[in-house]
Amino acid sequence: MVAIAHANDGGGSTRLPAAWCGLVGLKTSRGRNPAPEDTSRLLSELAVTKSVRDTARLLDAVNGATDADLYHATPPERTYQSVLGSKTPPLRVAMLTDGGRFSVDPECVVAVEHTAGLLADLGHRVEPVSSEVLLGPASAVNGRMWMAGLARRVEALGEKAGRPLTEDEVEPYNWAAAQRGKSMLATDIAQATEQQQLWSKSVIEWAAGYDLLLTPTAGAVPMLTDDLRPGEEQPWKIGAEFGRIGVFTLPFNVTGQPAISLPLFWTDAGLPVGVQLVGAMGREDLLLGLSAELEEAAPWYHRYPAA
Description:
The chain has 307 residues and is of the alpha+beta class. It is 37% helix and 13% strand.
């Protein structure tokens, strides 16, 4: 769900990702957009925009499926643009700020609490919840599957090049993670696939007790790219920082539930902090309708990260 863009800090480094830079990022339900070649449960692609309206217009233009798609979402009953401007009925919203084994920046927590206040003002009921189901020990399987998937992607790039890629051609952390994934046996991957499905089922059943889930988009405020460069000796150690960035978004790539990131909070330093709303499968309409109300309550169109 997190795409990349840059906001120069004046010193040659950049801040990332773009979902933190005053942009709207929608991750659609699995099968909402055509992807006949995709079998991964770890990826989701759309685009980031500056407004909820533009995201709705984009989704109206690209939603659908081909006969070859592995997943097919139920087509929407009306256009996504048509849900904007309608009053959302009172919702029960679960609020999660605990990152499990990953620490969460206090300003990310404040961003969620600020959004919870906006939701309460709009007539919705917000309830704090535990991270045990979403981020407990069973979720570790997603990291193993990610490394296996990365190993395959490095291999596939080599196939396109007509030769295996070398260590010098791959970013150090990705290379280190791919090597770990490459060491997994086929039976390990099959077992992990089963475990991932059981974990996904538990998350969807847990989330069904609420209309929406509210979390930070990431567990860290925008960071300088220099702070995310892996060390030469132990490049995999930077994975802890990457884990903080993706702790709240990766799970819903796996479950296939739709989620949206909104820049509803800004730090004293002028940096946007995204909050994420997660819906039930196929409920992009609910996410977009409520997001439009939040955009009206706390507009961001006039704001940009400090240079």
